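During the reporting period the student researcher (J.K.) took over the structure-prediction task from the postdoctoral fellow and processed the backlog of single-chain submissions. One of the processed entries is reproduced below for the supervisory committee.
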Amino acid sequence: MRMLIHGEIKPPAGTDGFIMLRGLLVMFVVIICFTAAIVAMAVLSHQGSRLLENVQREINTRNEMVLKRVNQ
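J.K. obtained the following structure tokens:
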């Protein structure tokens, strides 16, 4: 079993302060990707609802046309 030496654990030389900077950078990249995915889903949902409205409108107009022909 390997034991660590007592005392402060020091990061490798030349990385002072950059560990937190890298962590923040990764966090912001993840947040931006998550936001982009949510926006894409919202756009697709909105377009789907507009398509559904158009289809319902078309069905209603065709039903009215058919009913007018039948009633004549």
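The committee noted the following: The chain has a mean pLDDT of 87.
J.K. will present the remaining backlog at the next meeting.
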